[in-house]
Design a protein that fits this description.
about 725 residues, alpha+beta, seven-stranded antiparallel β-sheet, flat
Length: about 725
């Protein structure tokens, strides 16, 4: 049996049976496939839930650890800040105390302090140091008086040094004269010898020390960078300036060994892999709980932001910038969580790290527990799949038999309305448009039948109307073509008489936006030495505008010729002629149409140009000077009325004189308002620029207008013309 020659009835039956067989066959395959592959599927489900739960546990552990690390970092940074703020306050107290002593010498007696050269000093005992390097500066009367008075600060220095004795600090005063009043805290003879080395006793000048310079230059309390002190330990100094009547008198300071700050952050409360450290603004490690490796102090890896570990270097750059964050970094091949916060008082940053492995250790226990539950889930899923496979197979056998019986009846009921509709369509195709079908199936076939009936009725009506509309369109097209020809014939087009005139060169063009338009130009002789030039634009477009254009043009020319028959053109009141035409157009102007007119009379011998503007666009005059032409608009101080609007409107007559080579350019608003596809106008400015480019000293008016039209078309870039475009150009030759 060939499928292409089967009836619709058999095709539908075969299609339904094929679909049923395919569905049942597919269901059987699915059941077998599920039975065979259930072990694999349950394993995948187990892995999925294992991954989900593990991922959730990891996220929770990481979130809690990150929160704890952030709080821990902030708390340790806060402890360091409190210690530094206390150090700042104590330093400023010493500066205020010595400044008060210098300001009130009458309150304090002259006092002499021991020197390291005279006796061995005890820990915390204040002494005066004047090295050979500064002895000359300290020998003046003013310096000696300053030393005797400033020595009264020793009580405060000794009290302060004992307060900081746990960190083996020094409290001192460095004067602008170069002497030093100091109270050192030391724990042993060796440390005493380091603090009072020979070099320290010979070349020391406090004015050259970083703590003196940073406080003196800034004029306020400041912390130095970390440096190695005389005792060989890393330390930093808090320094504050003090003043006398002459200005800066010196700097007081307190040295603090870094172990003091280290003790504040050394605990590993977050875990066994917890690491705490601090960076300065250069990225150098100041103190750390690590004694070796990349985070150890002084192991050769000073600038952490230049580390080969990219993630660690990036985090160190954030620490240098004074930021706060919690990030995952890699160090020595292992991942760590790093939380860091700034230490504003020093411009440093504090960081605390914890291995990611330690954070996720509890998650491994949860994963083991989950595996046991996954095995039980896998077993129950296998039993469920086997049971469903058997049920589906039995159900498929029953349904296949029912579908075979139902498909035969359904195919027969479906095909009969189609056969009826096919017969009706054949008759309609033969031309019987009165043939109707009556099918009531309640479905799309009934809608198709109704659509065919409706189509035949509309087709019959359409064929009748088409013949009538075709005749009407042909008649309108013929009339519009005739109107266009009449309008074109009314405009002067015999240019040789004018363009070949020895006194001037003239040319004009008009391109209507529709078949007929409302723009018009005109030029004609009124005697041997005068020529009339007119440019006008009627409101609206199409046939109404063209009719008003004919009336306006005729009235203006008739009144002009009538006036020059009785008077010399030089003595005619051309403004009065415009007023006369305006009154005539206002009569019975129920449609309220109007026209803008620029009217002028050119003396072709003298170059005198008399003109009247009736609300029209300002034309342009091109003055020739030194081989080039400068174009300017001929604008009136007060814009005149349009013609045909106000019956008693008044117009003004004006004059200008053209020199040989000068040009006039007249146009309608279709030129400057020509639009491109985006609605952008051509504009008066672009028209003026185009005339500068196009108008050469030798160019013919026809060529100049052609170039202007090319520039307008280039601006429009294919956009439909929205208004009539009319232009007239004339060059006075003398």
């Amino acid at each position: 049996m060939v499928l292409g020659k089967m009836s619709i009835h058999k095709r539908i039956l075969l299609m339904l049976l094929s679909v049923v067989f395919f569905v049942f066959f597919a269901l059987g395959l699915v059941a077998l496939w599920e039975s065979w592959g259930m072990w694999k599927n349950t394993q995948e489900i187990s892995r999925y839930f294992d991954a989900k739960v593990t991922s959730f546990a990891e996220e929770r552990a990481i979130t809690q650890t990150r929160k704890q690390m952030g709080e821990n970092a902030k708390e340790k940074a806060s402890q360091v800040e409190r210690a530094l703020n206390m150090l700042r306050e104590d330093t400023e107290y010493l500066a205020d105390a010595v400044q008060r002593i210098l300001a009130h010498p009458e309150w304090y007696p002259a006092r002499r302090l021991p020197t390291p050269f005279e006796k061995r000093l005890s820990s915390g005992e204040a002494y005066l140091l004047v090295t050979p390097k500064v002895s000359e500066d300290c020998s003046s009367e003013a310096a000696l008086r300053d030393i005797a008075l400033a020595s009264n600060i020793v009580d405060d220095l000794e009290v302060m040094s004992h307060f900081y004795e746990d960190s083996y600090s020094s409290c001192f005063l460095g004067s602008k004269y170069g002497y030093l009043i100091n109270a050192d805290v030391f724990a042993s003879d060796e440390e005493y010898q380091r603090l009072h080395s020979e070099e320290f006793h010979t070349v020391f000048d406090p004015r050259e020390r970083p703590w003196y310079q940073v406080a003196a230059a800034g004029g306020k309390t400041a912390f130095t960078d970390v440096y190695v002190g005389n005792d060989g330990s890393p330390e930093l100094t808090c320094a504050a300036p003090y003043y006398d009547a002459d200005g800066l008198a010196g700097v007081v300071g307190i040295d603090v060994h870094l172990p003091l700050l280290y003790d504040l952050v050394a605990d590993k409360s977050l875990g066994s892999t917890n690491v705490n450290f601090a960076l300065n603004s250069k990225g150098e490690i100041l103190f750390s709980t690590e004694t070796e490796g990349i985070l150890a102090v002084g192991d050769g890896h000073r600038e952490l932001d230049k580390s080969s570990e990219e993630s660690l270097a990036l985090a160190a750059a954030g620490m240098k910038a004074g930021l706060s964050d919690i990030v995952l970094v890699t160090m020595d091949g292992e991942e760590y969580y790093l939380a860091y916060v700034p230490l504003p008082s020093l411009g440093y940053s504090f960081g605390t790290m914890l291995k990611r492995e330690e954070v996720l250790a509890p998650v491994a226990l949860a994963r083991d527990s989950l595996s046991a539950h996954a095995d039980a889930f896998h077993s129950s899923m296998r039993s469920l799949f086997l049971e469903n496979t058997v049920k589906i197979f039995l159900l498929a056998l029953v349904l296949f038999g029912l579908f075979f019986y139902g498909s035969r009846r359904m195919a027969k009921q479906f095909v009969q309305p189609i056969l009826t509709l096919t017969e009706a369509v054949r008759e309609i195709a033969k031309g019987n448009l009165d043939r109707k079908t009556d099918i009531r199936t309640g479905d799309e076939i009934e809608e198709l039948s109704d659509s065919v009936n409706h189509m035949t009725g509309e087709l019959k009506e359409y064929m009748e109307n088409l013949a009538k509309v075709t005749m009407d369109k042909q008649k309108i097209a013929t009339e519009l073509s005739l109107a266009q020809g009449i309008q074109e014939d009314m405009l002067p087009s015999i240019f040789p008489k004018f363009s070949n005139n020895p006194h001037y060169d003239l040319f004009a063009t008009m391109h209507a936006a529709k078949e007929v338009g409302g723009d018009f130009y005109d030029f004609y002789d009124i005697d041997e030495t005068h020529v009339v030039l007119t440019m006008a634009d009627v409101s609206g477009k199409g046939i109404p505008a063209s009719l008003f254009m004919v009336v306006s043009k005729t009235m203006l020319k008739n009144d002009t010729l009538a006036a020059t028959m009785e008077q010399d053109p030089e003595s005619v009141d051309w403004a009065g002629i415009m007023e006369q035409v305006n009154r005539q157009l206002c009569e019975n102007n129920e449609e309220m149409m109007f026209v803008t007119v620029f009217f002028g009379v050119l003396n072709i011998v003298t170059g005198e140009f008399i003109y009247v503007n009736g609300g029209h666009n300002a034309p342009l005059i091109g003055r020739v000077s030194e081989g080039k032409t400068d174009w300017e608009y001929i604008r009136d101080e007060k814009k005149s009325h349009m013609v045909g609007v106000i019956e008693n409107a008044k117009y003004m007559q004006k004059r200008l004189t053209l020199k040989p080579g000068d040009m006039l350019y007249f146009y309608t608003d279709g030129v400057t308002e020509a639009m491109d596809g985006d609605g952008q106008l051509y504009t008066e400015e672009r028209l003026q620029e185009a005339l500068f480019r196009a108008a050469t000293s030798e160019i013919k008016m026809a060529d100049m207008l052609a170039r202007i039209r090319e520039d307008i078309d280039a601006h429009a870039n294919g956009a439909e013309q929205s208004d009539d475009i009319t232009m007239l150009g004339v060059r006075f030759l003398g």
